Amino acid sequence: MFQQQKVYKSLENRNFTPESLLKELEDLKEFKFDDVSYTGISLNIDMLITQYLRNENFELIEVQGGLAKKNYATWFTDLSLAINIFNHFADYTKAHFNYYLEEAKKYQEETSHSNTSPEYKAYFEQGNSMYFHDVLHSVFDLSRKIDLSIDDFNEALLADNEDASEYVLPEKKVFESK
User: Any residues with CB less than 8 A from the CB of 132 and at least 6 apart, and which?
Assistant: First the structure.
């Protein structure tokens, strides 16, 4: 059987607690993705990239006049961390997807089963026909969210007349296979 990774199994990762997300955030900070869930990476990145603060129940915190916001230094630190996590996750995803492509080619050559055969599907998809879609969707979804947050961050700096040179974000990778 092809070794599927937990982080891409979106349908199996819907149960989470504040404690489980915190544990997964610690793994993400160390760029360890093998025990991180799809929900864990998505929610943790969401909380890092936004300007708004959340409480221990993941609810936005309301203050007089709107929602509680991170200061620029905190938002910059969190957004930089999210970009670095994403960059490593993009490499992890690229390696996993390229491994799948190599294994699929080898499997087809050795067995003569096409990628539409029941045997191929049993070996690679293992009952989850959306697995490889989720592999790619996860990295593209995170990429788009981070791109939007980078735009928000830069627009907010400009609107508040903050010195953008004090908040130079790391470069975000563009995902590509091979």
Answer: 97, 100, 124, 125
User: What is the model's pLDDT at position 178?
Assistant: 64
Cα–Cα nearest to 45, from 176, 167, 172: 172
Is the predicted pLDDT of residue 63 greater than 70, yes or no? yes
Asked if 79 and 149 touch (Cβ cutoff 8 Å), the reply is yes
Helices (H), 112-161: 118-120, 131-159
Instruction: Name, in order, each residue with C-beta under 8 angstroms of 175's C-beta and a sequence gap of 6 or more.
Output: 90, 93, 94, 139, 140, 143
Write the pLDDT tens digit of every residue in 149-174: 999 999 999 999 999 999 999 999 98
Gap between the Cα atoms of 1 and 63, Å rounded? 52
Answer for the pair 100, 134: CB distance below 8 angstroms, yes or no.
no
